[in-house]
Amino acid sequence: MTSATARQAIGEAAGRIAALSDTPRLDAELLMAHAMGVERDTLLLARLDHAVPDSFAALVEARLAHTPIAYLTGRRAFWTIELEVGPGALVPRADSETLIEAAVAHFGSRAPATILDLGTGPGTLLLAALDQWLQAHGLGIDRSEEALAYARRNAARLGMADRADFALGDWAAGLDGSFDLVLTNPPYIGTEEVLPREVAVHEPAGALFAGPDGLNAYRLLAPQLARLLAPGGVAVVEIGSTQAEAVSALLREQGMSTSIRADLAGHPRAVVAA
Asked: CA 264 to CA 46: how far, in whole Å?
């Protein structure tokens, strides 16, 4: 980058990033803030006329190679927390906040005491729930040690290490006990579906793909969820936008009642089962 100021460099970078991102200006601002070692708000309020850090050009080139922004900055905001993320961990999506919203709606003025997150990744749903209910304790399960390392660091950084446990596992196989709230964002992409390059190339395939119809994980989870719920408890399961009826049917076969929660775009995003 040869631009004299951060403002000019951001404009140039946004123009180049526009070919691969729906949010090119935001991407460029986040990369510049990261290069400067400041928050984006600080950049926009006080640093736009500063010199461009040497590291910015390399970050832009990495973004042009479809590396996710969260992997380049090492973090992603989710619900009320910020998570460390990177290669080997699924990047948290805003759509997944629908699960926390559904849980809040279910419990109302009550609060779950015990929370289970199956396929926790970097701790996304569990740590967001623990930040929502400050007296709760939880367990996150994942089959990736790499993802669990992020989760444990996130719990420690957020001051939740005494309330959040993490364990290697294959969903809930061999897990005893019951929970007031079970959260899960399983892989639900069909193996033949085409994904954006930054997802398909960089994010872990095991957290994305679930057989030809994208339902393999739900077939395993459905009988497990039914036995894990405490009386009055609820399971909230993320789904692809076309999977509401298929996943609901699998859960109803286990004797559970179901309802659907839509995301902000109006797409079915979670099955709520009790």
From this structure: 32
